[in-house]
């Protein structure tokens, strides 16, 4: 499975962005999907996850109320809407497909990773 993330860019604080992740195979419709991010000099951190049917969604506390994860299984895509962006949201954002239909913040639950898309927020 290949994952292609897109939609990153350079924005100002308070702006919005929409990240998308396209999977190469329809079989990811049975897998939970997640977004992680890694800022320079920091470890990769969990952002959000969504179960195979969208019925269970988990957010990191740092993005709760500002980011929204969604998926379209017919198109094999998962999206992350970023709103009210802050400078501390600056990072390389990765999408990932989990081994199973449910997954959370533990990165070891994820089998496939995309190449990342850069989000830079200036204050």
DSSP strand tally: 11
Given helix and strand content, the structural type is mainly beta
Oligomeric grouping of the chains: single chain
Number of separate helices: 0
The portion of residues forming beta strands comes to: over 45%
Largest sheet: 7 strands, mixed
The gyration radius over C-alpha positions equals 13 Å
Mass-distribution shape:
globular
Instruction: Estimate the mean pLDDT confidence.
Output: 96
List unreliable stretches of 5+ residues. Answer: none
Helices and strands, in order, run as: EEEEEEEEEEE
End-to-end C-alpha gap: 37 Å
Query: Helicity level, as a percent range?
Result: under 10%
Description:
35% of the residues are buried. By secondary structure, this protein is an all-beta fold. The strands form two sheets. Strands 2, 4, 5, 6, 9, 10 and 11 form a seven-stranded mixed β-sheet that branches. A hairpin with a 6-residue loop joins strand 4 and strand 5 (45-50). It is 0% helix and 49% strand. The chain is globular and about 40 Å long.
């Amino acid at each position: 499975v290949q994952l292609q993330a897109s939609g990153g860019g350079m924005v100002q604080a308070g702006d919005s962005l929409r990240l998308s992740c396209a999977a190469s195979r329809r079989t990811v419709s049975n897998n939970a999907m997640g977004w992680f991010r890694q800022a320079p000099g920091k470890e990769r951190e969990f952002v959000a996850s969504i179960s195979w049917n969208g019925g269970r969604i988990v957010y990191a506390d740092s993005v709760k109320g500002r980011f929204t994860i969604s998926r379209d299984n017919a198109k094999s895509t998962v999206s992350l809407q970023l709103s009210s962006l802050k400078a501390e949201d600056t990072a390389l954002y990765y999408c990932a497909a989990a081994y199973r239909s449910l997954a959370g913040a533990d990165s070891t639950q994820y089998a496939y990773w995309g190449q990342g898309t850069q989000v830079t927020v200036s204050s």
